[in-house]
Amino acid sequence: MYDVYLIGVGGQGLLTIGEVLAEAATRLGMPVHLYPYKGMAQRGGLVRAQLRLGREAAGPNIPPRGADLVLAMEVSEALRAVRFLKPGGEFLLYGEQWLPTAVMLGKAPYPSLEAVLDAVRTAGGHPLYLPPDGCPVDEGGPLPANIYVLGAAVGRTRLGGYIPPEAVEEVLRGWRAAERNLAAFRAGLAAKP
Question: Does residue 113 surpass a pLDDT of 90?
Fold first, then answer.
């Protein structure tokens, strides 16, 4: 059994990560439950999902200190997810910053990257940082960052022991823009967070 808590903001493709993983798990014959929460996603608001692997029956909520992996796509939103990380769990943070309105108006501070990584360490987790400038570019522009992050999660965390890269690549071959997605995924597999 393996639980993944995903968090970010609308427009980052976070729910696509969950969908790809759920489809790969299904093809592997693994019980999987995906619970997406969209909220105000269309406006750059909070988006989160919970992916529960290997349980025949699972409730929609990963309890606090229950996630084996937290995958965070935005620095400030990552702080919301630290409480879900299991001691000894892995926390993959993609360092993109989407400034909330309060920060842009000068009414609230934006957390530093080091503050987020310290919070993960304090919670007993293992932080892995993936800088956004590492996302590759091809002749069509930047490759999909969410699929790049998915590659890093499969290649650099224990998630890859449950869903191997080959299973994810098989799913991506059937998706729109397959070659670009496969290139992003493979770049993420090779990334060194």
Answer: yes
CA distance 133 to 49: 25
Angle at the Cα of 134 from the Cα atoms of 131 and 138, rounded to 5 degrees: 150
d(CA 193, CA 128): 5
Query: DSSP letters of 111-127?
Result: PPHHHHHHHHHHTT-EE
pLDDT of amino acid 155: 97
* 3-state SS, residue 77: helix
Ordered by where they begin, the domains of the chain are 2-190 (3.40.920.10)
Instruction: Say if strands 67-72 and 2-9 run parallel, antiparallel, or are unpaired.
Output: parallel
Determine contact, residues 9/77, Cβ cutoff 8 Å.
yes
Give the Cβ contact number of residue 71 at 10 Å: 32
Residue 40, pLDDT score: 57
Alpha carbon distances (Å) from 33 to 7, 57, 71, 114, 124: 16, 8, 16, 33, 26
Which stretch, 42-46, 57-61, 138-142, has highest mean pLDDT? Answer: 138-142
Among positive and negative, which fits the CA dihedral 98, 95, 144, 173? negative
